[in-house]
Design a protein that fits this description.
Blueprint (H helix, E strand, L loop, with lengths): L5 E5 L6 H15 L2 E8 L15 H40 L5 E7 L2 H7 L4 E7 L16 H7 L4 E4 L8 E5 L4 H11 L8 E7 L4 H16 L3 E7 L4 H12 L3 E5 L5 H7 L2 H8 L4 E4 L1
Helix pairs in contact: 1-2, 5-6
Length: 287
Amino acid sequence: MTTQPHVLACIDGSAVTESVCDYAAWYAKRLDISVGLLHVSEVAASSRRDLSGAIGMNSRQYLLDELSQLDEQRAKVVNSYSTALVQDAKSHIQSHFDAVDIHIYQRRGKLLPAIEHFKEHNCAIVMGRRGEDHKYSRINIGSQIETVARASSVPVLICSEKFKEPHSYMIAFDASKTANNAIAMLSKSNLLKGLQGHIVMVGNDNAAAKKSLVDARAQMVAAGFMVEAHHLQQIDALNGLLAFKMEHQIDIIVVGAYGRSKLQHLFLGSTTTEIIASTLSPVILVR
């Protein structure tokens, strides 16, 4: 396994796979690191069951042998699909982006443990907004996004639409610890440097929050970013942020992700999830 830092692109063969590949390659080029293409094949439950009962021993053994062969055939098909998928993804990146170093990773099991296996090398994770499990449903957030984002110590970029090179970004800022952590992390990265930036706070009409907004901008400006600060008076944070995005034609949104606990999220909801669900633009989640 490579010891180089990489942007880990989680692909699953769904309609958003090309978008994931493109944004991962863009991200990697901005940081001058490699792309890691990860496909995780979930291990299907064996077809074999406890066949004890009325049938005789010979018949039972014959059925177990047949089911074992089916398991082996299914495993071969899954492996062949995974290999074809990652090779196609690699070819896609190479045909659209020059000089991107690409590594291929194929694992079996669950997505989060596979991502955490590469934890020491992950500089960012890129995932599709709508996974294979939701492609025919009205839900436009993959079921594993929150799980991965809560567990990750690096930014997670969520995308769905065809790749469009970002030229502007908006940081959703609420003066919370999570939002300030996002400002600190971005200030140390070259990812958004050179793009037109906006730090946007909705509501929070108090002196402490306003000072936090001013300080956040000052921190990024001192680090060499082109960024403006905006304090919007709308009561509803989501609608205010989305209206600002449309008015200023923002290409990419940055959100301090899941500052509330899962229990608080259950009762109070999550602005993070609402933003992801309400826009087709790429969203970067930072914890």
